[in-house]
Every structure is written in structure tokens, then in C-alpha cells.
Amino acid sequence: MDFIPIRAYDNYISANLELALLQDAGINCYIKDEYTVTIDPLLSPALGGMKLMVEDSYLAAALYLLQKSDKLFLQTVPCPHCGQFTLEQVEEEIHYNRWIDKIKSLIVNGQEKKVQKYYRCSACQHTFGELPDSIV
Ligand SMILES: [Zn+2]
Questions:
Q1: In terms of CB atoms within 10 Å, which of 5, 29, 128, 133 comes out highest?
Q2: Are 42 and 61 in contact (CB under 8 A)?
């Protein structure tokens, strides 16, 4: 039985909320590096944050539940631009062509490509990097 990291977190509250969601659905999972990152947050970038580890046979179910949970949450957040409840999360992969850019990305992001995440309102097409402070 192998465990696969499917998400990383900077704080234990978000990590444990999603852990509880998966455990309630009967998914075998745990959080790796929770105590190390909580005791010494400066180690978080080096360790890649605390990681939600899921048993490989539950991978598809876990990803489905987390994505469904993210969508339901976003439906409760109004667009800061037009006020509609039509936000969606967008992920774009940025691939580098030059080897020096790949090495820089490997050092900064831990992988050769960069994954850029942001939010977009499907009503007004406004985009923003973070959810409004009053929501979180
Ligand atoms: Zn909008």
C-alpha cells in the first residue's frame, strides 16, 4: 500500500479540514510533516509544506471529493468586481523552453514547469490571484 501526496498546505487548519472530509468518506489518508511545519514554519518551504497523503487505491475518489468541495465553496464567494456567485479556479501550466529557466524553476518551484493558479468570474471575466480577505 503506497501513499501519494495530493495537496500541500502552509497551515494545519486547512490541512485538517480536508483530511476530515476525506476520512469521513472512508478514505485512508494522513497528513505528513504537520508537526514539523507547525513547530518551525520556516522549514515549510524546504519541506514543501504539510502534505495530505492518500492511499493510492483511493486517489481518484479523494481528488473527486476535494474538487467537489472546492467548487461548492467557491459558489458561496461573491465576485469582488460584480457581486455574482460565479467564481471558478483556473490552473495554467507554464512550460519553459530554455534550460536555464527550467533550472531556475526547479530551484524555486521544485519542478521544471510552473503552475499558476488564479480565480476568474465567469459572469464578468474579472481575474484575481487571491480570494477577498473578508471571505477567508
Ligand atoms: Zn464578476
A1: 29
A2: no
Nearest 5°: the CA angle 47, 49, 51 is: 105
Domains of the chain: 1-74 (3.30.70), 78-136 (no CATH)
Please give all residues whose CB falls under 5 A of ion ligand 1, grouped by chain where several chains appear.
79, 81-82, 121, 123-124, 126
Centroid of ligand 1 to alpha carbon of 74 (angstroms): 13
Instruction: Over range 42-59, report the average pLDDT.
Output: 88
How many angstroms does the Cα of residue 117 sit away from the middle of ligand 1? 17
How many angstroms is it from 12 CA to the middle of ligand 1? 31
Mean pLDDT of 95-120: 84
d(CA 132, CA 49): 23
Contact 15, 29 (CB under 8 A): no
Q: How far is the CA of 13 from the centre of ligand 1 (A)?
A: 28
Please give the Cα distance from 94 to 97 (Å, whole number): 10
Query: How many A from CA of 55 to the centre of ligand 1?
Result: 38
Which H or E run contains 128? strand 127-128
